[in-house]
Specification:
90 residues, mainly alpha, elongated
Length: 90
C-alpha cells in the first residue's frame, strides 16, 4: 500500500516515549509504531461492529416488534441529539 504523509499532534510525553522506542530498536520508527496502533484500533472497531450487528440480528429474530420499537427510539434519540448539537454551535 502506498504511504501518505500526514501530520498529527501527540502529547509530548507520548511522542517522546515512541521516539525512545524507535531509538532503542523496540519499534522500526515512530511512523511504524503509529501505523501499527492505528491498524490495531481499526481492527478492534471492525470486530466491535461485527459483534454489535450479530447481537442486533439475534435481537431482531427473537422479537421483531420490540426490535422495531428499539430502532425507532434510537433514531428519534439520535435525531434529537443532532438538533441539540447544532443549536449551541452558532
Amino acid at each position: 500500500m502506498p504511504k501518505e504523509r500526514v501530520t498529527i499532534s501527540l502529547d509530548g510525553e507520548i511522542a517522546a516515549a515512541i521516539r525512545k522506542l524507535a531509538e532503542t530498536g523496540q519499534t522500526e520508527s515512530v511512523s511504524a509504531y503509529v501505523t501499527e496502533a492505528v491498524e490495531d484500533r481499526l481492527a478492534r472497531q471492525e470486530r466491535a461492529e461485527r459483534i454489535i450487528k450479530g447481537w442486533a440480528a439475534e435481537a431482531e429474530q427473537k422479537d421483531a416488534a420490540q426490535w422495531a420499537q428499539a430502532l425507532d427510539w434510537a433514531r428519534r434519540t439520535a435525531h434529537k441529539d443532532e438538533h441539540s448539537d447544532t443549536k449551541g454551535a452558532a
